[in-house]
Amino acid sequence: MKIKIRGVEYELRYSLRALFIYEQITGKRYEEGDASVNDFLLFYSYLLASNKNFPLDDFDAFIDVCDEDPTLYATFAKWITSEIQRVNKLFPADDSKKKAK
Questions:
Q1: What separation in angstroms does the CA of 74 have from each of 15, 78, 80?
Q2: pLDDT tens per residue, range 49-98
């Protein structure tokens, strides 16, 4: 998927690299339901992972851009939700372990 930031299109790809970048930045795994800052850090991580020359190498500058255009995060949230649903359909959770307890 492509997302336009300040008139420039950037790629968003669902990848492990983004999760690795997130973990390097925060020092922990991403957990859905964490504080809002973590959701924006995840968004930032996906942009860094998907675009080798992403110009906003500073998280504060990235937040400034998100403040300028609130639709950016809304677009990301919709995209990441659809990607998670797609992956969950491909690799459904094994509920048999939960039922055995």
A1: 19, 6, 10
A2: 999 999 998 999 999 999 999 999 999 999 999 998 998 898 887 765 55
